[in-house]
Amino acid sequence: MGNSPLFSDAPKAFPFTMPEEAGPVPLSTNDPELLIRRGFEQNPQLGCELLYHRYYQNLCSYAVRFVLSKEVAEDIVSDVFLTFWKNATYQQITVCYGAYFYRAVRNRAYNYLRQEVSRTQSFDSEVGDNFIDTDTPEAIIHFQELAHRLDAEIQALPPQCRKAFMLNRYEGKRYVDIAEELHISQKAVEHLISRALTRLRTHLTGEWLILVSLISLNSLS
């Protein structure tokens, strides 16, 4: 993912504390973002750090359901946070921060897939011109339906096949590491993931948004 044009200009240094390094964020029972807003009142960077700790992992889990790569998902979420910080977008937020970030991540994931479509010759050249506005209710519902359908298809994979696929795509592990964890050969891992991809492509025929992820990220070895 490091050479994707979508993130080629993203700064390398991230100004916020990583979630695993930060302490737990206490939440108000009535307003889960109350302390975040208070953080912004004290110091914008404190507010951003609280936001990052509160939403980073969940946003990565959300993004990976569409792009099917832990690395790509993390790049997307980090890029959204960087843009939020650099553009001082926090000064313009009048509603739920979480709603803003889920929408922004969804749009970035969608744009990433659009770029992949334009570079994937397996798709008709007209597909890239038929994208719907990602902010419409129809687009949001379609995104959610795709995620649920993909989740269901992954859960329907044979257990060992599903495990290898999820370790590779959702946790970003290499074939050699998966082989060690599952106590099988690296060739067996390659076969399991290839089998998973073939089955998913077959069952998701017609869903280009998912298929482009399965095609463009074919070999994360």
From TrEMBL:
One Pfam family linked to the record: Sigma70_r4_2
Residue intervals of the RNA polymerase sigma-70 region domain: 51-116
UniProt KW keywords: Sigma factor, Transcription, Transcription regulation
Gene3D superfamilies assigned: 1.10.1740.10, Winged helix-like DNA-binding domain superfamily/Winged helix DNA-binding domain
GO molecular function: DNA binding; sigma factor activity
InterPro entries documented for this protein: RNA_pol_sigma-70-like, RNA_pol_sigma-70_dom, RNA_pol_sigma70_bacteroid, RNA_pol_sigma70_r2, RNA_pol_sigma70_r4_t2, RNA_pol_sigma_r2, RNA_pol_sigma_r3/r4-like, WH-like_DNA-bd_sf
Occurrences of domain RNA polymerase sigma factor 70 region 4 type (ranges): 149-200
Membrane-traversing stretches: none
UniProt cross-references to SUPFAM superfamilies, sorted A to Z: Sigma2 domain of RNA polymerase sigma factors, Sigma3 and sigma4 domains of RNA polymerase sigma factors
Family: Belongs to the sigma-70 factor family. ECF subfamily.
UniProt name for this protein: RNA polymerase sigma-70 factor
Organism of this sequence: Spirosoma telluris
